[in-house]
Amino acid sequence: MRLPIRIGILVAFLLFIASAALATPPQPTYGTANVDGNPGEWNLVNDFFSLMYRAGNPSKPVESRAYLRYDCSTQTMYVLVLMEPNSVGYIDPNMQTAWVAINAQNNKVVTENSGDDGIPPDFEWVGQGYDGDPQHVRGYEASFTIAPGSYNIIFHIDVIDSSGGQTSASPGFPGTGPPLVIDCSTGVQKSSWGVLKLIYR
């Protein structure tokens, strides 16, 4: 095979593999993250998973966004929730205000009370006190263990405005959430090596 053709095939193949790694809901991005309250390692385009609306109602304003990564080797899901620029996340010390649930809101898999010891579930606020108020946040990072499979996932955080504390949640809240499919099959990796061998025969 002529070299320019090989190079063209290789470039196209690498672009295909890169696109397969992106979050394509209902699947997350496949990778890891560090739950430390610093969202710098997240890719806000590739890792995006769901919009979050006032009261989980898509007819109301978008107030935050949820991002996902999944590590197949440890069966760990990583979550980033970030507020929209004009929205303020809110910590209510008297209530559970930030959490992720699977299939039903009473099946919470991580909350702001989970702590952060490096063993999922872990939780850290993002930007707590960024405006001088320790009850105001820009979002949160979290992790929890979950096996591959098909689920519904619910993201939740409180927001505050002139009318007081409110809910920002994924669509379907409070009863359900967006579909989540975790697939750790090795088909892509196996086919990748096969294609590379064909290119360089």
Automatic annotation (TrEMBL):
The keyword Signal applies. Keywords: Signal. It comes from the Bacteria. Residues 1-23 form the signal peptide. This is DUF2271 domain-containing protein.
